[in-house]
Each structure stands twice: as structure tokens, then as C-alpha cells.
Write a structure and sequence with these properties.
Elements: E1 5-8, E2 18-24, H1 26-34, E3 39-46, H2 56-63, E4 66-70, E5 73-88, H3 106-110, E6 137-141, E7 144-145, H4 147-173, E8 178-181, E9 185-189, H5 193-201, E10 216-218, H6 222-229, E11 244-247
The protein binds iron/sulfur cluster (SF4) (2 copies).
Length: 248
């Protein structure tokens, strides 16, 4: 879809604060846990068979990932820490207003703009009601976000890159070492709040030791599993799992 100019004026309906996982930086994850709320962890894996190594998609995602061992292969894992708002965000008050508006996560202040450079903002893919696209400031013009949004989007991408290694190391320390294959499925963990807080509090010291574990990848599509497995990647075959496997 080609964008010309998209106007947007949030009406504060709170619909975007319900039924979702909200990606957080490491620092935001700490704050979220300190407020007594839950943080989910989403793990995705990929290698250059998904996108060529010299493609923009591979380079962009590799910066958000940490390279780890799986069986006889090296693959990239992205760990996304996300506020659990699957029912609704715990900060939403009974008027459907954000109770931490001034301190809300970066991604909340970017929505409905897109953070991924490979996704074009399309109102049809957003939960906002139709009327909010008819007034307000221009947020996107010819696929470029407005300058203030661009600053936030750049900050979000930077935080993703800066946190990538530590997030994967935290997952290793908590035995969350099965990822789903990117663009095929998500492996979603719902770790105990206190255990995750303890791991996060150690993340500046001894926990940054990625590479001590052989990671596994969960793939349910037979053909894809054979293809990825044939490259030496260790496939998770356990009948019981400590994560939710969410097929895309
Ligand atoms: S932190 Fe605030 S803006 Fe973000 S999802 Fe929760 S209620 Fe909505
Ligand atoms: S769904 Fe859209 S209009 Fe409603 S609060 Fe969220 S960003 Fe604003």
C-alpha cells in the first residue's frame, strides 16, 4: 500500500491497551515488574535461509538478535520482553485511560505508527476507530513518520539492538531456550514474576554469558522442520513444553 498523508487524532478509547502483548525495553521490563505486573517472553529464531544474509531484512533482524548454538548450527534468536495485556493492560483505569501516561512504554507512545521498517502503516490493520484517521496531525506522509515519531521509532530500534544480547542471556539463565521459527510461529513464555525480576537484576553482571546452552527450535510444519533440521539445528521434540506455541 502506498501512503500519501495519514492524519491521526487519538480519542483515548483504550482499545489498543487490551488483548495484546506490549514489547518493552529491558529498563521498562524492570519497571513493569516493580509495579507488580507480568512480563511475557517471546522467542523467535532464524538464519540466512529465511532471508539472504546481505538483505535488509536479515541485517535489520540480526541487529535485534543474539547468535547462539543449536545442535551443530549457529542461529539468531530474538527475545522480546512484553507486558502482558492479554486481557487488558493493568494500567488501564476504569475510564479506559492510561494510569501511567507520562511513563508509558515507548511502543505505547508510538502506536499506531509502525516500528518495523518493513511494514507500511495501514489503518485497516489497526484497532483504532475509523474517525480518528480523519483529523489531527499528519503522522505519516509518503511512508515517512513525522519527525517526532521518527525520533521515538529510532529510539525503540536502538533499545532493541542494545538489549538484544542481555535479553537472550536472561532467557538462557532461566532455561527458556526453545524458540519458534520466525515468521512461522512464536514461542511465548509466561515466567514467574519474581524469578524474572531476579534474572533481570543480575543482567548487568554474571548473566551476560550467552552460548553455554544448545538452543532448540520448535517447528510443527513437517517440511520446514526437515529443512531447518537438515542444517544441523536442534529441533524441540518434547511432548510437554513450558511455553505456548502460537502458530502464525
Ligand atoms: S501502559 Fe498505558 S498506553 Fe500502554 S497499554 Fe497500558 S494503559 Fe495503554
Ligand atoms: S485504539 Fe487508537 S484511538 Fe484508541 S486509544 Fe489506542 S491509539 Fe488511541
Amino acid at each position: 500500500m502506498e501512503n500519501t498523508a495519514l492524519r491521526f487524532a487519538c480519542n483515548g478509547c483504550g482499545v489498543c491497551c487490551k488483548g495484546r502483548l506490549i514489547p518493552l525495553t529491558l529498563q521498562e521490563s524492570r519497571q513493569w515488574l516493580q509495579r507488580g505486573h507480568d512480563v511475557a517472553v517471546i522467542l523467535e529464531a532464524f538464519d540466512e535461509s529465511l532471508w539472504p544474509a546481505d538483505s535488509e531484512k536479515f541485517k535489520h533482524n540480526a541487529k535485534r538478535a543474539s547468535q547462539i548454538h543449536s545442535g551443530n548450527a549457529k542461529i539468531n534468536v530474538i527475545a522480546i520482553f512484553a507486558a502482558n495485556a492479554l486481557t487488558q493492560c493493568p494500567n488501564l483505569d476504569d475510564q479506559d485511560r492510561c494510569g501511567i501516561y507520562e511513563e508509558r512504554p515507548l511502543v505505547c507512545s508510538i502506536y499506531p505508527a509502525e516500528i518495523s521498517p518493513f511494514i507500511t502503516l495501514d489503518p485497516a490493520n489497526k484497532v483504532c476507530p475509523p474517525e480518528v484517521w480523519e483529523a489531527g496531525e499528519i503522522i505519516v506522509s509518503d511512508r515517512e513518520a513525522n519527525p517526532s515519531l521518527q525520533v521515538k521509532i529510532a529510539q525503540s530500534r536502538d533499545e532493541d539492538r542494545l538489549d538484544a544480547h542481555a535479553k537472550v542471556a536472561i532467557c538462557e539463565s532461566m532455561d527458556m531456550t526453545v524458540a519458534a521459527w520466525k515468521e512461522n510461529a512464536l514461542a511465548v513464555y509466561l515466567p514467574d514474576r519474581q524469578s524474572l525480576m531476579t534474572a533481570l537484576n543480575h543482567s548487568d553482571s554474571e548473566i551476560r554469558r550467552v552460548g553455554h546452552t544448545s538452543w532448540r527450535v520448535r517447528i510443527e510444519d513437517h517440511e520446514l522442520r526437515e529443512t531447518v533440521g537438515s542444517r544441523g539445528v536442534q529441533i524441540d521434540t518434547a511432548e510437554l513444553s513450558s511455553y505456548i506455541f502460537h502458530k502464525l
